[in-house]
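Protein modeling request. Please complete all fields; requests missing the sequence field cannot be processed.
Requester role: graduate student
Desired output: 3D structure, token encoding
Chains: 1
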Amino acid sequence: MRRSYVKTIKSNSKMMKNTSLICISLLLINVLGSTGVLQNCGKKEEQVYFNFISRSMPHGRIIFQSLRDAPLGNPNSIKKYWELYSMDVDGSNVTRITRNLYWEHQPDISPDGNKIVFAIHYNPSIDTKETDSGWEIAVMDIDGTNLTRLTSNDKLDACPHWNHDGTKIVYVSDTYGNFSCFDIYIMDPNGENVTKLTNAGIGEFYADPSFSFSDGKSKILYIHSKGYTSNWDIYMMNEDGSDQHLILSTNNKYLAYHDPMFSPDDSAIVFSAKLNENGNHGIPIYKIFTARVDGSNIRQITDNDDESDVVPQYSPDGGKIVYFTWKWNGVVFERKIRIINIEGTNERIISSFSPEEMPSWYPRYIRIEKPVEKHLYIADREIIRLLKNTVIIGKITIKADAYDENGVEKVEFYIDDELKNTDYIMPYSWLWDEFAFGMHEIKVIAYDNEGNADTDEMEVAIFNF
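Delivered output (465 residues):
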């Protein structure tokens, strides 16, 4: 009887305590929210970027498109089965991201690692091409959920890329809807504030745009052709469309340029160049090149052979280049993803299936995963979404997610700039269970294996007695 009585007393006491916490939390939310004390509370969007060059082997991850799960024996609908996947740089840990009957194309991951922007065709047929109408721009969460269409018209919208802080998307659109000219546009990540940056005339085409990576006033690389020719030159302009100027022009050696992208520190560019119009089995031969950002010091990266190497992109540390290759295997063209050092050494195939193409690197990032901004937490449990603020009643486990292609050494947890914990093993977390009242700043700092750091911060209202 005594044990039962004591157990009942403890149970009732615990229930009263939880009830009191709920009542206190609701009162605090009502009072503080209405008076505006908790305004401007939430996760900051600004990211800190590493600007360094490393020659170590990256432990990175890549997003790409593949037909590896397409059903056999149905060639008329095969393009509906282009899906997005991710894998490690050695080709392992392949993970499927999308599962639908659309054609997802040209994926690019936001700088904070949360979103994917891509071109999408909602009803592709066997004859659908990359340059047909019906292509739109869409975004989704990094796990493939919450697909959101950003453009909606009967034109071609394609080639999307994020800017350095994820606040703008650049892309190409068929201006008049009749393929007489292409222009470059930018828009917000929600599809609003569409701005046309170029003014193409009939027979003039702007394509393959990509942003610079550095903070400050962004630059945009792109290719340009005039008079319905295939002589694509590389140009650069400011993010507002001003100061359009030539970087590389075609000649007898370089017949066309495609897919220019900046290095992580914006000091160099990588691109593919057409060297032969009629290569093996009728495809043009492209090779990967790098140059200084002003177009000088051109260096060929991939070997001269009958393969075609296209869509290159620097790794986040600047030490590697990923791309995909068209190669005739005696029966069909193989399309596989490869990685090579920027010196042109150690080229390797990482695809275990063909066709796979359009590779893009995962960015390095650190982010606070718990608490989620604008949510209420009671006794370490998420309760409800709030309109403005992040409110914590009682203790909470702070969780962080970090990624770096050179490996994450450690994650530090701070409260109001005071170091509280250092975690060396995933998942990175720390239990915050000490007296705290009012507004406080949570900060996490991730360090890679070369000592470079990245930070995420969040202000919260906490009441833990």
